[in-house]
Amino acid sequence: MSVNDPITPEPLLQLGLGFMASKTLLSAVELGVFTVLAQGGRDRASLAAEVGLHSRSAADFLDALVSLGVLTCDEAGVYANTPAADLFLDRAKPSYVGGILEMANARLFGFWNNLTDALKTGTLQNEVAQSGAPFFATLSQDPVAWRNFLNGMNGVSTPLAGALAANFDWTGRRHVIDLGGALGAVPAAVLRSNPDITGAVFELPPVQPVFEEFVATHGLADRLTFHGGDFFTDPLPEADVYVMGQILHDWNLEQRLFLLQKAYDALPEGGTLIVYDAMIDDERRQNSYGLLLSLNMLIDTEGGSEYTVADATQWLQSVGFAKVEAHHLIGGYSAVYATK
């Protein structure tokens, strides 16, 4: 903007009303718009009938998705997915990341309405605030909500899994365990590109049935296994690589250091711990995604937050890791590789 350009309210209005665009996309994912269009282009009437749109809403809803850049519409009025939407928002593709958007739609969107209360009180605003019961124990009792949550975690991990599989040097590694790895997106990606490596997920026992469905779908049942347990109270299974992805941000500093020390103690000499999260840039000025996710952790956890790359490096060094390297992965995500 030059000094002669007028100051207008449009950027502020677009930012303040951004929830409208967000909810439009989330509803499209919920309705399966992108999955339907992955099978081929549709005219408005056909697409509206397929996904259940009312005649009053169909034109504005679908054209809003075009204007937001996730659908196209040709001169004949045929709607189609953009390449990115087709790759990442079609439920039938292994690259589907819509699980996290489905969870955002079902859970987080409503909780964010209480952000002001969270900012004033410092207390979480999710199901625990409403019921007082432990989060995972409560959520796992609802099969639909539990599957939605696990698919959400898997959805956000899927693109990161591919980046980790390509970015980290897996030469000579034999067994990787994802600690708190949900359905196993990361070890699955590693195993697909490294046929000599085996892997496992160490997770709460209620995760196992959904995990086994995921592994069977990806044809990895003979190489990717499940260990049930709690990483705060149970011994960690042996491995030469541990992964903690989107784990540390759930907990306060004391709990983070406990988990990092536990991983260090369990690894063999030369073993590596990979930590990844939406780490905030050290100057805390650029990674808006990480900063906003940190506010989400304020809403959704008792003591969690995102943290900087420098924070992660210092913590890993403090528990004994001799070699610590930071790497950008994709988007707002970074990883730190710590070798014993």
Please explain how this structure is put together:
With 340 residues, this protein is an alpha/beta fold. The protein is built from 16 helices and ten strands. Strands 6-5-4-7-8-10-9 form a seven-stranded mixed β-sheet, with helices on both faces. Strands 1-3-2 form a three-stranded antiparallel β-sheet. The chain starts with 9 loop residues before the first helix and ends with a strand. The model has no long low-confidence stretch (mean pLDDT 93).
Layout of helices and strands, plus pairs?
Blueprint: H1 10-16, H2 18-31, H3 33-37, E1 42-43, H4 44-51, H5 55-67, E2 71-73, E3 78-81, H6 83-88, H7 98-111, H8 115-121, H9 127-131, H10 135-139, H11 143-167, E4 175-179, H12 185-193, E5 198-203, H13 208-217, E6 224-228, E7 241-245, H14 253-266, E8 272-277, H15 288-300, H16 309-318, E9 323-328, E10 334-339
Parallel strand pairs: 4-5, 4-7, 5-6, 7-8
Antiparallel strand pairs: 1-3, 2-3, 8-10, 9-10
Helix pairs in contact: 2-7, 7-11, 11-12
What's the count of strands?
10
What kind of assembly state do the chains in view correspond to?
A: single chain
Instruction: Output the radius of gyration.
Output: 21 Å
- Helicity, as a percent range: 40-55%
Termini, distance in Å?
Answer: 50 Å
Shape: globular
What class would the helix/strand composition place it in?
alpha/beta
Discrete helix count: 16
Strand line-up across the major sheet: 6-5-4-7-8-10-9
Could you describe the largest sheet, including whether it forms a barrel? 7 strands, mixed
Strand coverage percent:
5-15%
Output the helix-strand order: HHHEHHEEHHHHHHEHEHEEHEHHEE
